Each structure stands twice: as structure tokens, then as C-alpha cells.
Amino acid sequence: MSAKKNFNIDQCHVKVLVAPLDWGLGHIMRCIPIINELLDLGCEVVIAGPQIIKKVIHEEFPDLTFLPLQGYRISLSRKKGWFFGKMILQFPKILNTVLFEKKWLERTIKSEKIDIVISDNRPGLYSKKVPSIYITHQLSIKTNSRIGDIFSNKLHRHFIRKYTACWVPDFKENGLAGELSHSHSLVHNVVYIGALSRIKKTISEKTNEHPLVILLSGPEPQRTILEEQLFAQLPQIKHAVLFVRGIPTDNHLIVNEQKNVDVKNYLNSLELNKVLNNASLIISRSGYTSIMDYVALQKRALLIATPGQAEQEYLASYLEKQKYFLSVPQQNFDLKVALEQEKDFIYEMPEFSMDAYKKVVRELVDTFKSSNFASTV
Prior knowledge:
About 35% of the residues lie in helices and about 15% in strands. The chain is built from 11 helices and 13 strands. It has helices at about 25-40, 50-60, 85-90, 90-110, 145-160, 220-235, 270-280, 290-295, 310-320, 335-345, 355-370, and strands at about 15-20, 45-50, 65-70, 115-120, 130-135, 165-170, 190, 210-215, 240-245, 260-265, 280-285, 300-305, 325. The strands form 2 sheets. It has a 7-stranded parallel β-sheet, covered by helices on one side. The relative contact order is 0.15.
């Protein structure tokens, strides 16, 4: 196809809109290395999203322009068996958000003179006017329902095909996400960009201030349910524990009377980088962004999948079979028993290159600047 001329183009200036999904913190966190690379390449970066995204971005990039854009406001069921049913009930709200963001984007491209759009799992943010990039590791969606799998994948791939390219944050060979990122019926515009992590492995003297770090995130009410479950069992632990709740918009800490347990609502990337580098063990959800962080650091981790969230359940099981991490179900979770199991677990995690995405981002910007970007939309 012939290249499309973009009238916002400037050989020395490219304005990129980055819009992550507001399902937990993982989507915005894995966009951070991409944002950093865009800034290193001299691009102007604009972020769009709801308040929780704004809070995180302000911590990481206080000088970036932020555009308010309503989120998907997804909530999970308290019971595993009702997960898919509750998602179906929220489908009209999800579809309305997709339609809204599509109209919002067309106005924003014109008013803000956007040159490139990068959407992390927000399916409505594509346009024929500018190169539009979609980021997802779920080329194959799992829902714990055969009908749900068929419907979800057909709809998801419909939107993926609307984009100029679909960036998959995984490796084409020996991937971290298994079947999720390696569908047998790939869409035509998929590009594997390697794992993304804002966390960097550092060589420094270990303080071992908090040998056990607990990181929570994700949609409610399951985040709070696991938080309460873990706090009830923390008196069993005598060594130092850092408990990060994953709530950047909350200014109130929960009451904690254990002297060996430090509680934080949220840590920015610099703080988290230091904490994770010095941790001996991490306990967290099996969210894909967290997994990429632990792989980057080659860290021991105990994963607890969100009940009913088939993606996390699959990842936890798959990575345990690969002997990358140990996984333990949330139901009847016993912290003391889990820690004993982790001591006996034999890790066999290989080293992965964590910089492959930089080449893909650079090629996107360079190709755009040369006006040779052939849109496939």
C-alpha cells in the first residue's frame, strides 16, 4: 500500500498519544519503558486515561501532558464461579466505552495534533488518520468458558485488525505468556517486541531490609479480599515484610500494629526498583506485567492468581510448569505453608533480553518521520 501523508508531521517533532487500560496498574506500568524510549527519541508524549492513570503518570513523569479519558471501570465478582457472568453483565458498559473513546480520539487527533497513537488494551483507540499501535499479550483470550473464549477472541481480533500494528510484549520463541500470546490464528499485523519492564537489575550491596515483599494490585473487590486474607496471617511471620497495597489514589493507610511489617499504599518505579532488587522473595498476583518485572530481575516469586480470572490462572499454572515461579491458589491460602513450599521449589528461569522493544519503537518513529509509514488499516 502507498504511504499516507500525515499533516501533523514535522521532521524534528513527533507527538505520540499513549493510552493504557485502567484494569489494575499493569497496563500503565508496562507502558513506562515505551514512554521513556519515546522521550529518548525526542518525541512529545501525551498520556490519556482516568484519575488512577494520572496519579501514576504524575509520579513517573511530572512534566507530561495528561488528557482525561474515562476508564472502563471493570469490577470483578467476589466468587470465582461468577467471574464470567459478571463480565457479560458489564459488556454494554464496555462497548459504550469503546464507542466513546473512538469518537474522543478523532476529536483529540485534530485538537492536539497527534501523530501516533499507542493504545494498551483499549480497543477503540485506532484511526485511519494516523499510525495506531495496539499493545496486548492476549492474542488468545481465556474466560473459563468455551463460548466465552470464542466470542471474546472473535471480538478482540476484530478490533486488533483495525490497528496499524499489534505489539505483543513477549518473545516469538519461548514466550513468557504461553498460549495467550501465541495464538494459532494470528492476525496479520502482529509484531513481537520482547518483554517490557520498568524495573532494572542493579548491582549494589544488599540491605535485605525487607526480605519478603508483598505486592497487590488489580480490580476490586478481589484486591481487598486478598489483602485482608494476607493481613490476617502476617502475625505468623517474624522477619521484616514490606506490604505494598497497590492503591496510588488512596491517602489512608490501614491500621498495622506489627513492628516487622511496613505498609505502603504505592511505590513509584525508583522506589520499587530498589525494593525488588533487595527482596529475597516476592508474593503477588500473577499479572503479566508483574511477571515481566520478576523475569527482568531473575527474582523468586510466589504467585496468587485472581480467582476466576482465567488469564492469571493460566499464567500461574503455565509458569509453574516451566519452573519459573511457584503458584498457590487464593482459596484456603495458608501463608506459612506457602512459604515452606517455596523454600523447596526449584527455579529454572533462563535469562531474557529486556531491550528488544527499543528497536521496534525506534523503527516506528523513524519510519513515521520519513513519511514512509504504510498504513494497513
